[in-house]
Specification:
CATH topology of the largest domain: OB fold (Dihydrolipoamide Acetyltransferase, E2P)
Largest sheet: 5 strands, mixed, barrel
Mean pLDDT: 88
Strand order of the largest sheet: 2-3-4-6-5
């Protein structure tokens, strides 16, 4: 190998390593957000949130994605996830979709006293819209 090729390889390796360090720091070293202590950026009814995504998903993504949202609504389903954490679904029979709230492990015991049809406030981080609007790291607001 000549010196020019060796220099190009060295610079390429250095850039690759620096890019890897940058990605690692931005993805894996995000600060922990305590949802229970954080103020919500948005407070909204569950049916309004679903309508917003079903009417214009791109606009709703720009407004709600990765935001701490407090959602009010009626419980339509309470289930357990694979890891044992509770999943609460908010909605009603008149809406196209629902809001699926993945409850944090610290909050899962609070779901034992909840009932279908009960009106509840839940705060969590919006991760998007599949068939339902999804909130993660949710806490129950009393």
């Amino acid at each position: 190998m000549n010196s020019k090729t060796r220099s190009i390889l060295s610079i390429s390796m250095l850039l690759l390593i620096l890019t890897g360090i940058f990605i690692y720091n931005n993805i894996y070293n995000k600060p922990f957000v305590d949802i229970s202590e954080s103020k919500p950026n948005i407070s909204i009814e569950s049916n309004e949130l679903v309508d917003s995504f079903s009417n214009n998903e791109n606009e709703a993504n720009a407004k709600y994605l990765e935001q701490i949202i407090q959602v009010q609504g009626s419980i339509t389903e309470i289930t357990s996830g694979k890891n044992g954490n509770s999943i609460i679904t908010l909605g009603n029979d008149n809406t196209i979709g629902n809001v699926t709230c993945y409850i944090s492990s610290e909050e899962s015991l609070k779901t034992n006293n909840l009932k279908i049809g009960q009106h509840i406030n839940i705060k969590g981080i919006c991760t998007g819209y599949l068939m339902d609007v999804v909130l993660v790291k949710c806490v129950i607001i009393e």
